[in-house]
């Protein structure tokens, strides 16, 4: 099991932030998730605590009291040294449809010029890769997916849009992601996913969790319209391998 230098700092009066080296690395993410499970077993579970894993950090929030930083910092450092490699959870693998029609892929033509690739090549590269869910935010249910092929790496747009359509699939440097609702955004939009990623009315509003993996597959505009109607009437369109 890999061991990394961690840094712990206060995150308000009732929370602490545990940081790993800043790198988009599945080994680091695995270590974070193992440590998350371990600290839950050591008294940091239940309704009193909320623990959030993302990319290179683990945030522990106490919902009932203020924390004494020196005490919890020392305790977490000790637990990190003592932790044992648990039974690693097999990530759930999701297959999500994307329509890359130019109505939805509003940046495809521009990206085609920037990357010196045809639109068909961009779609092929995007659907061929397997992505890891490294974080969920800035909007509820926004998936930060790492594993973008090097040939698709592209910077964020210089000027963010005021409104990006719900379901839009975007690219930004080494990441791809899905906008779970209409919102401002600066990613390069290449398509749209008709599967609702976040539903506040459900007991589990976001079906994806950090550590899961995702593949995209291309669908036609007609299939997109059908999937949209099916999702609106509550038909489950999700496909996962485990």
From TrEMBL:
- On the tree of life, the source organism's domain of life is Bacteria
- Single GO MF descriptor: hydrolase activity
- What is the species of this protein? Muriicola marianensis
| Keywords, in A-Z order | ATP-binding, Hydrolase, Nucleotide-binding
Q: What name does the UniProt record give this protein? A: Allophanate hydrolase
SUPFAM superfamilies recorded: Cyclophilin-like, PH0987 N-terminal domain-like
Which residue intervals define the domain Carboxyltransferase in the entry?
A: 6-208
Q: Where is the signal peptide?
A: none
